[in-house]
Design a protein that fits this description.
alpha+beta, rod-shaped
Amino acid sequence: MRTDRSGISLVEALVALGLLAGLVISVSGVLVLGGRQIRGGADSSRALAAARTILEDLELRSHDALLRELGCDGALPSCSASSSALWPAAWDGADWTGLAQHSTGVSLAALDAGPISSAQALRLIVRVSWEQSGRARTLRLLTLRV
C-alpha cells in the first residue's frame, strides 16, 4: 500500500472552506459598517453646509432687521424661532438632499445684561436636526455678533 499521497483530505478541505467563510462574513460586516459611517459623514457635511448657509444669510442682516425677522420681543434677553414657521422657503440655497425629516431653528441671546434690543453682543445659534438610520441627529453652529 502506498502512503505518499499528495493532495488534501475532505476534512482539510471542509476546515479551509469554513475558515474562508468566516473571513468573508467578517470582512462584509466591516464593509457594511464603513458604508454607514460614510453616509453619516455625508449627512453631517450637508447639515453643516446648510447651517453655514443660514448663518451667513443671517449675518448679512442688521441688528434690528434680525430681531424683526425672528419675531423677537426686544425687551427679552433671548429669543428663538423655527425656520419653518418664519421662512418656509427662505434657505433654498442650502443643500437639504439626503437629510430626512430635517428641521432648523435659530436662537438669539444677549451676552450682556439687559434686553436683546440694546445688547452690545449677541450669541446666534443655528440648529439643524435630521433623522439618520432611525436616529435623531442635531448639529449646532454658533457665532457671536458684536
